[in-house]
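Weekly modeling sync, notes
Attendees: AB, CL, MP (scribe)

Item 1: holo prediction request
CL wants a bound-state model with thiamine diphosphate before deciding which constructs to order. AB pointed out that an apo prediction alone won't tell us much about the pocket. Agreed to run with the ligand included and paste results into these notes for async review.

Input as submitted:
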Amino acid sequence: MTENLMLWQALNRALDIEMASDESVFTLGEDVGLYGGSYRVTEGLYAKYGEWRVRDTPISEGGFTGLGVGAALTGMRPVVEIMTINFALLALDAIINMAAKIPFMSGGQFPMPLVIRMPGGVARQLAAQHSQRLEHTLMNVPGLRIVVPATPQDAWWQLRQAIASDDPVIVLEHELLYFEKGKLDPVTPPPPMHQAIVRREGTDLTLVSYSRMANLAVEAAQQLAEQNIQAEVIDLRSLSPIDWETCARSLHKTHRLVVVEEDCRFAGAGAEIAAGLTERCFFDLDAVPVRVAGLDMPTPFNAELEAASIPRVEDIVSAAVQLTGTASRSG
Amino acid sequence: MDRDTLHRFLYDMLLARAFEERAAQEYSNGNIAGFLHLYPGEEAVAVGVIHAAEPSDYLITTYREHVHALVRGIPARQVMAELFGRRDGICKGMGGSMHLFDKQCRFMGGYAIVGETFPVATGIGYSIALRDLPEAVICFFGDGAVNQGTFHEALNMASLWNLPVLFVCENNHYQIGTEIHRHSAVVDVYKRACAYNIPAEKLDGMDVINVYEATRHALAKIRAGNGPQLLEFETYRFRGHSMADAGNYRPRSEVSSQASRDPVETVIHEAGIGYPSQAEIAAAGPDLVDQLVCHVSATGHFNEQHIENVRREIDDVVEDAVQFALSSPSPTLQDARDSLYCNRRHETLLEASHHD
Ligand SMILES: Cc1ncc(C[n+]2csc(CCOP(=O)(O)OP(=O)(O)O)c2C)c(N)n1
């Protein structure tokens, strides 16, 4: 039965279901246990499953992420929570040099059923060291899968699928989405965890986005509709691999592409998306793809500057208006 | 020490030495490339420690791991083929010298980033403890690795949660060319363990029987529920750090005194530094393989003819390994993809349909 709940609750339930059905699933991270998780994702699980399966760790990101790798090597299915993606920099050796490479370096002997969850993104005035996204860094690592749920429904299914997967999967959550509500339908079969979805149909241009920005893109599309511009919105849901097919199908129809991302524009995820789609859809495109992205600067503390440093709905709207205008002038 | 055990020590140490010297030769012949870190001088540690372990215990080690793999029971053929980067290597040529893995033998890998093994070992220990199994994990590392943050993070967690991890330091006194008293504020590695409440001791790592006994004792403590233990074995590598390293930073006499027990005063003078001390070198003794050979013949366990036969048998094994490696094909790009995609379980990936 469909329910309305917050994204953190969806994650919490997903974890609970998987822990209940498979004893090899356990979770660890700073304050995930007694405290219940910084964003409440592990709330109640410590009481239910005990400290060995819901383990509070010391502040040792490199250490406990590597611990997850070791446990996964022996057939456990650890879910490591890194408090925020900013601290994942300390764990990059475990993520990149170990989790992503051991299956390969061992000639395929060792699967890596490891999930690493981390919240990230620009939240509210947390300043440069606590506000960033690093998907580009992780996207560049063969062997890792990255999912970016934007709705409770996706959060629920994708986390469950990530736990069931034998690949190392990074679940990139967004700090501003945890307390957003959405529908959870536990019955309808889910799309594969790496499949993109069309969040809104349209004919005039395609907005490709993910995570919180996908929600902004939907909002922008609603405003564009008032100006008689029909934007199709694609939520990628997964950044590695990327579902190019769904995007290409859309571009075949709309002929115009806007990529929306929160991260810095330079060498970011948007660069890969724009380049990948240009290669695939060059003859479908009526105009140069446009990237709406964060500014190439660390996140400022000041609230107004912070807001100006990442895309807002109006930025997406104006980029779309400009693109459709250009295209119709030239066409 | 019973005859069978001694025989296994003897065989493995002779095999270790012969295998590594042959690997060096094959490197010069151009059959092995990349980084190649050899183990001569340190054999007593791998042999003593690994024979003290049960087959159900896990091992995890560094890039200097060929001998650990051999002693653990991975056939010389497959180790050599991996060094050659061939398809019949233990990791199908995807891992190479520094990354040997064997799931069956619970050989959880050689890791080329110094310090990585600590958290992984802790994770394996966690997995054992969580399931309450009578197993342990043995984590090998060099003296240089203890300055890495992961050492401290992992020891803290292992101790905090009483995990069944045996940390084994192969202290050969060098981190490439930097001697221990120039890289570590505490030259006794074992003393660092007390910061985390982990029982630890320093032992002669040149005497295989000594290593074996100490390890058995430590593992028994772990199995009795006493949590992690740390053993520091003092040893010495006769070769450079890797084949790329001639080892010029070490006075020649230091190396030769380790091998042949030359008067040690010269060493101390030449080095102009406190290490190695007379006492330490005396404890280290002569070439450990020779030492064991002398021991087993002196104690009447094996006569010279027997030892000679073992040597010949090993020569054949090593020669066969090289021939096997030479005749094994190179892996294909498809093999590489299969290794990368070995994980797929409930799901097909979209990209697979693109590239296939
Ligand atoms: C994190 C990291 N830094 C540096 C290196 C380069 N490096 C390779 S081996 C080595 C020395 C390690 O010495 P030790 O741990 O004592 O082991 P040993 O080689 O003596 O067996 C260094 C610095 C590395 N592989 N990883």
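Recorded for review: The pocket of thiamine diphosphate is lined by residues B 64, 112-115, 142-145, 170, 172, 174-176, 241 (CB under 6 Å).
Action items: CL to compare against the apo run; MP to circulate these notes.
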